[in-house]
Design goal:
2 copies of one chain form a homodimer. Chain A is mainly alpha-helical. Chain A has one domain: Arc Repressor Mutant, subunit A. In chain A, helix 1 packs across helix 5, helix 2 packs across helix 5 and helix 3 crosses helix 4. The first copy, chain A, is 65% helix and 9% strand. Chain A has 5 helices and 3 strands; from the N terminus they run H-H-E-H-H-E-E-H. At the A-B interface, helix 1 and helix 5 of A face helix 1 and helix 5 of B. Chain A binds a DNA duplex through helix 4.
DNA sequence: GGACACTACATGCATGTGCATTCAATGCAC
DNA sequence: GTGCATTGAATGCACATGCATGTAGTGTCC
């Protein structure tokens, strides 16, 4: 296919930015007001829920989480600290590699995520369907 | 058309987020390293260039700019302060409404934008063409 | 085993952002 | 005109983020 022209690129970028900004803003507002969660905090909870197999909560590493929510390692470290303080996740030392930290959901964290999912999906439906 | 399912919505949102994060990050890095401009600062300069008609630089209001780059009014106020400190724009009182502030490009601002455009377009081409 | 490079995470610091507030100017009702 | 709500922008403040650095644990080469 032919390469897009500069004006097309700029237009595409602006559209992308506008959608992202509007959606992220709405998401942050709704999740924060109704469930006391920031957007990235919800995303991290969701990754943990997805990683869960069967009963035992998955234990993901800080760096995996950081990469998957587009935050720096330091930002994730503090984000996990906030979630831990709120009782939604737990840090535990990784058995195999004691430098690593395993992050896993608490029951409260799972509940909070379950509560927030409808809000999240509803905002996405509002913002992402033209 | 049929409403997208929840997994489709989530997938679309993650894709959007990933593209935005990667592009914004690359844009910030390149513009900052090579031209001393943040992404939003470049966007503001670009809006001012676009608003220019003929010789006389357009004078846009703080709020118009804020809306068009998805920042809050306070963020824009400080962003303009940074650009002004760098000599790239000038604030001037709006004649009709003396509450308002007209922001307009200086020649240095126009030059800086012109220098940065190729970098900007090149990053967009890299990140936005699959 | 000892030295060294490397990895995973935590933390000090600087910065950019949003919210709430403040201040000045405007417009409207009377 | 006077009073009052409204608007445009600047600012104090709290907070989240990234970068650079510190610390502990791991692996490798000799």
């Amino acid at each position: 296919m032919s390469a897009p022209s500069d004006p097309e690129l700029v237009e595409a970028w602006r559209t992308l930015l506008a959608r992202q900004a509007a959606t992220a803003c709405a998401l942050d507002r709704e999740l924060s007001e109704r469930h006391g969660l920031g957007m990235s905090e919800f995303e991290v909870l969701e990754r943990l829920v997805e990683g869960t197999s069967g009963d035992c909560a998955a234990s993901l590493r800080i760096q995996e989480l950081a990469h998957s929510v587009h935050l720096s390692q330091s930002a994730l470290s503090r984000l996990i600290a906030r979630l831990e303080k709120a009782g939604l996740v737990e840090r535990s030392m990784c058995a195999e590699d004691r430098r690593g930290v395993s992050v896993c959901l608490t029951p409260a964290g799972r509940d909070r995520h379950t509560d927030a999912v409808p809000t999240h999906r509803s905002v996405l439906a509002d913002m992402l369907t033209p």
